[in-house]
Write a structure and sequence with these properties.
- With 300 residues, the chain is of the alpha/beta class.
- The chain folds into two domains: 38-103 and 112-140 and 244-299, Periplasmic binding protein-like II (D-Maltodextrin-Binding Protein, domain 2, 3-Layer(aba) Sandwich); 143-239, 3-Layer(aba) Sandwich (D-Maltodextrin-Binding Protein, domain 2), CATH 3.40.190.120.
- Strands 1, 2, 3, 4, 5 and 11 form a six-stranded mixed β-sheet that branches. The chain has a five-stranded mixed β-sheet with strand order 8-7-9-6-10.
- Helix 2 links the parallel strand 2 (37-42) and strand 3.
- 39% of the residues lie in helices and 17% in strands.
- The protein is globular.
- The protein has helices at residues 13-18, 47-62, 77-81, 92-99, 116-126, 149-155, 160-164, 176-188, 204-209, 223-227, 255-266, 270-281, 288-293, 295-298; strands spanning 2-3, 37-42, 66-69, 87-91, 131-133, 143-148, 171-175, 195-199, 215-219, 230-232, 245-250.
Amino acid sequence: MKRRKVLPVLCTGAVLVLGLSACTGNPQDPAPPTEAVELRMATHSEPTYRALGAIYADQLEQKGYQVTLLDPVADPAAQVLAGQADLVITSAGTAAHQVAPARPDTKNTDSAVLSREQSAKMIAGALPENVRALDASPGDLGSVLVMSRAQLALQDVEDYKELAQKCPSLKLAAPQASATLLREGLDGANCSAAKVEATTADRLPGMLRNAEVDGVVLSQADALIADEGFVSVAGTEALFDSEPVLALGDADVDEGAARAINEVTAKLDEDTLTAVSRMAHGTEPASAEDVAERWQWLSQ
């Protein structure tokens, strides 16, 4: 973390000629300037996380911090871990795998999926001394299986347990990491015959709209679910890692900045995350800066 040098105000004889009250320590006098703290924030290339980063940066700047946004990359948390950035906005599941890549021991459990509690435990036990994790959001960006109402009616199911019984006819699609977890979940439900296509995230909305597959895996906060009448299949959130939003920061990030960050995080419930996602991924996506400017409205 860098600090900009600011020259102190000195009480010289010349100043006294202009006005003795300038250095008398009167409580009504403006406080002397302090050093401006500069924070380098790593940013994500994924639009929702990039917008969230801009929101945090804007709120920090309103508290008097100077924030430099680094160029977006696919793995910004690595920059904080390497000391190349002071701060990154990420998710608990992602952070857990960054600092402790091996999944938890699943000998005595039914799933290798990371819950909110498991992620927190992994992060706390594996973070290097120079990095700290701040609060996690109440809302979750974790994945769910999404289908059309018509497809659910055609399959005659209401939740994942019933859906797994329709196994042989299912054709699903998901991003690579989610596809692995979906496959594990289906196998665990004796649904090995279901077809799971691993693809890129940008293809999934079109595949769902065009009924190329029965269902796709999307973020719980994806606005497409509510805005276009699709449905998240009840129970499928348990197939994927929990992904509440949190900040990873350099251990030297001061407490004032940490409080400002946690204040934003506390407002990131499901509705707010969906609103951010809607703006970042809409038919005419807003820039990250525009999303940040609307934070007060988004967080109501």
